[in-house]
Amino acid sequence: MKRVNIDSREDWLNAAVLALRPIFADRGYPLADKIRVSCGWPGGRNKARAIGQCWTSESSADGTFELFLSPVLDDAHRVLDVLVHELCHVAVGIAAGHRALFAKCARALHLKGPWKATSAGEGFGEHVGDPVLAFIGCAYPHAALSSSAANTGPKKQGTRMIKAECPDCGYTCRTTAKWLQSHGAPLCPCNQEPMEVK
Known about the structure:
This protein is of the alpha+beta class. Helix content is 32%, strand content 15%. The chain has two domains: 9-136, Zincin-like; 161-197, no CATH class.
């Protein structure tokens, strides 16, 4: 197998797929020809907890399985066992879920359950991890991101509206500080009296 140049974490991940292909095939689980792997936040309902995700080839415009590994991972061994989990979905089909067919494939690749959140089992390093890491020949070029740290994305806007209430009838409304400064408290529509600003 020809070595590849590693200039990015995606190069590293895709080189790992290249090295894993014969390992999967030897165990009776050939992989699809078109697979891309990226480091990125998995989407969907459980994206805050998910550390890997496999998108079916039907979702991709060019018929490629798209795999995403969370940027919270930076240990090469853990990255590999998560990648193998996602490749098991490719091998048996996403429709199989984490049921018997998936479990059989995962066991053949030395993963251990629970099947929705596998980890490296006995023999994984010797039969899967070590040969793949030797083929890649360098550390995973990534530093872990913390999903709880502040980011530079848009901030959630707090309310700018100020509550006003009529002390007589209880009618309430909200307005901005700008309008309160320029026009004073709003008038209650029931009695035309100024409302109390809360």
